[in-house]
Amino acid sequence: PGKPSCPRFLKALPHSAGSEEMKPPVAYQKLKTPESPQELLPLAEQPGQTLRQFHGSVLGRPCHSVSGLRAAETPNRFTSILPWDFQCMLVTAILSTVLVVALVVHSFFFPLHSLATLGNVASAPHVDDGCSDSCRSVLVESIPEGVTYDDNSTVGLSTFETWQSLLRNARSSVDIASFYWTLSNQDTHTHDPSASQGEEVLTELLHATSRGVVLRIAVNPPSARMPSTDLQLLEKSGAQIRQVDLPRLTRGVLHSKFWIVDHLHVYLGSANMDWRALTQVKELGAAVYNCSCLAQDLGKMFEVYWTLGLPNATIPSPWPANYSTPYNKETPLELELNGTEAAVYFSSAPPALCAPGRTDDLQSLLSVIEGAQEFVYVAVMSYLPTMEFSHPRRFWPAIDDHF
User: Fold this and answer.
1) Are the C-beta atoms of residues 134 and 290 closer than 8 Å to each other?
2) Contact at 8 Å (CB) between 181 and 219?
3) What is the CATH number of domain 134-347?
């Protein structure tokens, strides 16, 4: 409840942002009601024009019916020279040519219109029956230095190795939604050797932009506790950065942490863009490879942040159709994940940032609890049935009641 912008994957990833000391303080402001949602809406398409109907004329009648008119017509040079069957064929050819030319001219001047628009019918979002990609998913985690496990324990791939692999293999684009950036010792005013992993990630990001990879970053506005040194360095190298002012828009923060690489690979987890999230804090996440269906759907959530990062942005209500999704808890995306049939969807919060079709985080979490048959395991940094960041704190039993 205190982190109002946190997508969930497979309805099961824990949401932890590290130790409480890592959390920068958040100054809340009065909620601003959207005043002009149209500012963010794309230009409305012009109404389609229907083809003109020819009624009460020869062109509007079938050829066989025209023969009945011959006796009443005054013979002219056209009808006396050409056989009637040839005249009928000629009229048909002329009409067909006019129709083709009209369609070509229409598509030239109105390239965005669909055939549905020609009849003034809004085209519905396309709903795929499933995903043909052979998606592969792995759990990734950060284990603090000094923490050891038994030899027979299951340990996931490291967050650091996963990030580095995604960046080194990026070909065209990397989109990152993030809370804050402190990847180096300089950012935290420390001299810890374990910060080297974060600094290597920053270096790899710079290498990516230098070879032409388009890097877009959506992040909270910087503050004294959330410096922008890393972001300034990346921006100078060519990265595109937008500060999403959710404190103004929703009295919350952008707390999401996910990556989308080449519109094909995805990382989603609890780790911040902080060197301590790689070596000092327990973190958990998932990486999904070769899964364009999931990457494109998560990309719609990134575009929500990207849009709200524009100057003086407001939250549209409702969100335009191009942000909507057909995948939710009622109709999840059916795909093959690690060779096994799976049903997946992304959820988001707060509801004001959920485009049509998107399940919000709370409903997703509650549906997991309601669907439990044997047990519910919970791994969180802290569990309190309160609104932690409200002043004063208030009782908030939504999840507690379901438990």
Assistant:
1) yes
2) yes
3) 3.30.870.10
234: tokens are 């990346």
**Does the structure show a pLDDT above 80 at 356?**
yes
**Spans of all domains in the chain:** 134-347
Instruction: Answer whether residue 166 shows pLDDT above 90.
Output: yes
| 11: pLDDT strictly greater than 60 | no
pTM value? 0.69
Percent of the chain at pLDDT > 90 equals 61
DSSP for residue 294: H
The DSSP output letter for 370 is H
Structure tokens at 67: 């023969």
Q: Which residue matches tokens 């309190």?
A: 384
- Measured on CA atoms in the order 83, 84, 88, 89, is the torsion positive or negative? negative
pLDDT at 185: 94
Closest residue by Cα to residue 301 from 342, 269, 260, 245: 260
Question: Which residues, at least 6 apart from 52, have a Cβ–Cβ distance to it below 8 Å?
Answer: none
Give the separation between CA 335 and CA 369, rounded to whole angstroms: 23
